[in-house]
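Quick one: CUE domain-containing protein from Knufia fluminis, C-alpha cells please.
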Amino acid sequence: MAEQETPRLPPLLEYPAKGIQSQLPPEEWQACLEFWIASVQLRLGMSEDQLSKSSPQTTTVPFLFSYFSNHGFVAAGATLGSKEAQLFKQSYGLLRKLLTMRNSQIRADTYFELLVSGSSAYSRLVSWKKLLKSIWTSHQIQLRKAIESAKVSLATSTTYQAQITLLQNISTLTRSLPETATVTVASADYIDTLTQLFRTGVLDITRAVTENIFYSFIALLENKHITILTDNIYHMKSEADRLRKSKPESTSLLSSLLCTTSFLRHFSSNSEVATRKQPLVEQLNSYRQETLHLHALPQKHRRKKGKQRAPKEDGMHMHMAAQVSQVHELFPDLSTGYILKVLDYYSDNVENVIGALLEPDSLPKELQDQNVPNPEPHFENDLLDLPPRSTPPLPLMPPDVVDNDDFDSLRISSKQIRRGKKDITAAEPTAGDEHARSKAAIISALAAFDSDDDERDDTYDVADVGGAVDNTVDTDERRQPETDANEAALFKTWKENPELFARDSKTRASNIRQQLKRETGMGDEQIEGWAIMLGKDKRTQDRLQDKYSAARAFGGQQKALQSTKWQASASTENSETESGPERSNDSRRMGQEGIRGHRNFGRGRGRGGSTAGPSDDAATQAARRRKEQGRGRGGANNRRDARAKKVGRGMGPLPPS
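--- reply ---
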C-alpha cells in the first residue's frame, strides 16, 4: 500500500496586532478570520504524522504565538457563534494537538512558551488544567526538558527584562500546573539563582522573584511535598541569617516572602505542618516580626472616579449579582456572561437554571457551548431618577408639666431666680418650713460636735484588732530572753520523727538524741516529758504549727494575740479569793480543763462583786478585772458612736444660740 501523501497546506499567517485590526475595514477583517478558521480546521483534520512532517514550527507555532501575544484571547468575550469565538476555540484544539504529539519536533524552549501562552489564554477553562495533568502523565520527560530549559535560560540571561519575563512565565505555568514546582525548586541551585536575582535590588525583579517563589511553595504545599518545601525554607533561612549578620537592615528573599505575601498563613494552617513542623512555624513567625519594618505594607488601591456622576451602566443590579453568585457557588468554571444569558433564558429563576446546568443535555442549542463566556449586560440604575417629594411635617411634641408656668410665660421676678442650690441656714429659715428648720439645727449640732473630745480612739490597736498590721514587730534577729529557745528545735524534731522522743534505752543512746540534748541543753526526761505534754495538748500543736510551719515567711516572731473575751469557769471563781501566784496556777488549770471539756459558765448565787467596793477586797478586784474584759473590742467606741447618733437625730441638747 502506498504511503499516504502529506496534503499541501495553505500558509497560516500571523495574527496582527490590535492597532492593525482597528485599521482594517470590517469586510476585510471578517475575510481574514474566515481564512484563519479554514487553515486551522485543515490542520486539525490531519494526523499527527502528517502534521509533524508539515514543519509546524514554520507557520503553525508562530501563528499561535502571535494570536496569544496580540490579545487574541479577548475573543473569549465575543458573542456565541461569532467568528472570533470560533477561532478562539479552534486555536485551543490546535494547541492541544501540538502539545500531545508523540513524535513532536518542537524544541524544548518553544514547547515551554506554548505551555505558558496556553496558560495565559485558557487558565479559566477546567479542560485546560486537565490537559496539563494528562501531559504531565504521558509526556513527563518532554515537559521536564521544557521546564529545565527555562531554568537554564534564567540562569544565563543577562538583561533584566528577559529575567522578569522568564520568572513571570514560570509563575504562570506553576499556577496552572502545580507539578512544575517539583522541577524548579527541587534543586538548591534554583533557589540560589532567585537569591542572587533578589539581591540586585531592582524593584521589578524583586517582585517577580517573590511572586515566583510564593507560587512554587504553594504548589508544593498543595501536592503535599512537605519535605522538599521545608528543606528549601531551611536553606533560605540560613542564607538570611548569614546576610543579617553582615547587613542587619537589608531585606532577604525569605523576609520578602513572609512579610509581603500570605505564605506563612497557608503554611501554618496545613495539618501536617502544624503536627510535625510547629517549631519551624514559630521561627518563621519570629523572623517575620523582626523584619516586618523593612518592608512597606501594600497600600490599598483606590479607584479614581472623579467628581462627576458615575454612568448608569457602570454596575450590575444587586439582585442579579446575588443570583449570579448563587450559580457560581455550584459551577465556578462558568463565566459570568454565560450565567447571565442562562438566567435571562429561564426568566431569572435560579432553581430552573441550576437544574438545567446539572443536565447539560436539556439545554437548548444556543446554550450548549459553555466555554465561550457571554458579555455582561449592563443595567440602568433607576435610583438616580427619584421623584421629588415634599418635606414631611414635624412630629407633634408631647405636652410637658411645666408648660404655661411662670418661667414659660416670663412672669417670674428676677429676685426669685438663683443659680445652683439654695443655701439653708438656721438663722433665716423659710417661713412655715419646719423641716428646713429642723435640718439646719441638726447640721449645726454636727458641725459643733468634736469627735476627739470623748475618749481615746483604740479602734486600730494591735492587741484588739487581729486584722491590723502590727508595726511593732521586732525585726531584730537576736534572740530575746523571753523567747523559748528550745521550742523551735524540739517542735521541728518532733514534727519530722516523733519516735525520737521514745523512752527506751536504744533511742536515748542514738546520735540524734545526743545531738538534740547538746543543742537544747535538756536531759532525756525533760525532752520526753515535753513530747508527752505536747501530744496531749492539741491546741498547743496547732499554735506551734502556725508559728513554725512557713519557715521562709515566719521565724517564730509573730505575736500570739490573746482573746479579750471573758470566760468564766470553776477555776476562775475559785481563784477570786486567792493570791496572784495561786491565781495564775488556777488559770493554767482552767486552760487544761477547757481542753478536756469541763467548762462552767456563770457563778453561784451570792458570789457577786462590785467595782465600788474596797480596793483591798479580792471580790472588788475581780469585778474590776471582769469589767475591763467585758468591754471587749470597741466597747467604748460603740458607746461613743451611739451618743453621736442620738445627737444627730436631735435627741440631745441643742447648742446655745
